Amino acid sequence: CIVKHAFLPPVMKHEPALPASILSFTVKEKAVGRVLICANASRLDMHNNQDLYGLDMTIEVAKNLLAKSLPVSFVFTVSSLESGADVFNKGLSKLKEYGITDHFLLISEKLSFVRLIENADIVIRPTNTDGDALTVREAIYFGKTTIASDVVSRPEGTVLFKTRNNEDLEQKLE
Question: How far apart are CA 139 and CA 39, in angstroms?
Fold first, then answer.
């Protein structure tokens, strides 16, 4: 029995360019030697009373890595705020509270995530439940370091971290 996954590589000529503000952020951060880390969420849902897509974890880990003076920057994109505007706004507040808004772009606007992957150095998938995530397959396809929670079986080449474990994610990013 042979199992083949249904992943089809993106046709990049059909993918729109990144919005100018996001492209500018990625270019500026990389120009000064920062490692660009990206993640995405379709919505900011809760699962088992925890942030399904790990925005909360990503912000905490970013704070810790930046406090260690590691040259990193993050882009976390959310496709829809339909049910998660409060979680999104709480995330924005945390970024301001921690003083890391210069190196963490939290956005909710339509964009081509594969274009963002193209610009990134590392792609993370900090979910607490998942399927065969397209994000992980696209990141591996583009040859990016891909770090994902161990909540499901992941494709070969994925670096795993313990689900909902900030310290393990932080260590893998270091």
Answer: 10
Pick from 17, 67, 61, 9: nearest CA to 37: 61
In degrees rounded to 5, what are phi and psi of residue 81? -100, 15
Closest of 44, 112, 110, 36 to residue 75, by C-alpha: 36
pTM across the whole model? 0.96
Per-residue model confidence as pLDDT tens digits over 79-132 = 999 889 999 999 999 999 999 999 999 999 989 999 999 999 999 999 999 999
Q: Kindly write down the DSSP assignment for every residue of 93-142, as one continuous string.
A: HHHHHHT-TTSEEEE-S---HHHHHHH-SEEEE--SS-SS-HHHHHHHHT
CA 154, CA 148: separation in Å to the nearest integer?
8
The Cα–Cα gap between 52 and 9 comes to: 26
Contact yes or no for 41/78 (Cβ under 8 A): yes
| H or E segment to which residue 68 belongs | none
Measure the CA–CA gap between 55 and 14, rounded to whole angstroms: 29
Residues 120 and 111 sit within 8 Å (Cβ to Cβ): no
